[in-house]
């Protein structure tokens, strides 16, 4: 099994230290010792509610945000010390943003937007850039006449195709797709998901597909990691996670996902909020919401444990 990406004990803590007036600044542990791996050519779904640390994790993986601790290995290269070096990350891994229009520079034409990575990451000359841009537009099914237009002239679906073309420009091996269809109309979501699936096959890409929507993650993923309050609480092959979740949180997420054909009245809600990040609980972060919680859950955070070769969960009372 060859790995495209490996993350070891990755942590991001915001705040800490003191303010200019000497007051202590509270710490927020957005990502807490996350370890993950993605196999080459596969899609690793990363799922969790708003605030669980998905975007913080994603921004560290593409080198936009420096980690507090931990290692990032991409295509066998340890990039842990190279955060902020666009050439080191950008030729291997790229980011596709949730909101396609606002992620594109409004003052630049689409041609200029696509040229930027070709110039800065690959140093391509003009004729090579022209050929590459035609190739990219062809790959995402857009017409060449769009190249002289500006981002606001496009629909959400078209803008996301442009965002995908930009991410693919420098031929990275991995795409981090951060809620790539959440901002799009439902009718366009399937088209963009199909395009992504075709591109993955054609270019032998690896995807990290981040979403709060378990139904979408189920549809696209080979493996899945479930994040809760900055930690991986369950990880494994998608079929195993969806057919027999071991963590009560994954089970609750699955039952609360609006799935086509399911009686809405039977859909459970995730009414209780995440713990306060400024006052993290000492035991399992899910204990206050968990139907199976006992004393030990409130006292001691469970370690992640393997149930089979491809299925792990962090729970004192696994299902
Ligand atoms: N720059 C920052 N400074 C301080 N705290 C931050 C910062 N960025 C994120 N956080 C906190 O870190 C935690 C995780 O946030 P993050 O945005 O990664 O979650 P998320 O799962 O992507 O949520 P969403 O889907 O709403 O974007 C939250 O408690 C958030 O308030």
UniProtKB/TrEMBL annotation:
User: Which positions fall inside the ABC transporter domain?
Assistant: 5-254
Matching PROSITE patterns: ABC_TRANSPORTER_1, ABC_TRANSPORTER_2
Cellular component aspect of the GO annotation: plasma membrane
One Pfam family assigned to this protein is: oligo_HPY
The record's principal subcellular location, in a coarse class, is membrane
Could you give a single Gene Ontology term from the biological process aspect?
transmembrane transport
> Does the keyword Membrane feature in the UniProt annotation?
no
Report the superkingdom from the record: Bacteria
What's a single GO MF annotation on this record? ATP hydrolysis activity
Q: Which UniProt keywords apply?
A: ATP-binding, Nucleotide-binding, Transport
Q: Which SUPFAM superfamilies match?
A: P-loop containing nucleoside triphosphate hydrolases
Cellular location of this protein?
A: Cell inner membrane
Q: By its UniProt entry, which PANTHER family does this protein fall under?
A: D,D-DIPEPTIDE TRANSPORT ATP-BINDING PROTEIN DDPF-RELATED, TRANSPORT ATP-BINDING PROTEIN
By sequence similarity, the record places it as follows:
Belongs to the ABC transporter superfamily.
Q: What is this protein called?
A: ATP-binding cassette domain-containing protein
